[in-house]
Amino acid sequence: MKDHDEWVVAMAYVPWQKFKEPYDPSKAFMVGTIFPELNKPFTGKREGMNERYR
User: Fold this and answer.
1) Residue range 36-48: mean pLDDT, rounded
2) Are 29 and 42 in contact (CB under 8 A)?
3) Is 41 helix (H, G, I), strand (E, B) or coil?
4) Cα distance between residue 43 and residue 28, in whole Å
């Protein structure tokens, strides 16, 4: 068995974000991000979830 100091704890994949025109500061403050690509409003729906979990 490997020594625990050699174990890989996690690996992450983070896609490159293409920079686009950011929101103006007042809009960014209202939506919680300056980047339009990251503006993912909460809709309260479970879109894409398996029927079993609805």
Assistant:
1) 78
2) no
3) coil
4) 19
What pLDDT was estimated at residue 40?
A: 85
DSSP 9-33: ------PPPPP-PPPPHHHHHHHT-
24: tokens are: 């103006």
Whether 37 and 17 have beta carbons less than 8 Å apart is answered as yes
Kindly list the distances between the CA atom of residue 49 and the CA atoms of 8, 10, 21, 43, 45, in Å, as whole numbers in the listed order: 30, 25, 32, 14, 9
Tokens of 1: 């068995």
Residues 21, 37 contacting (CB under 8 angstroms): no
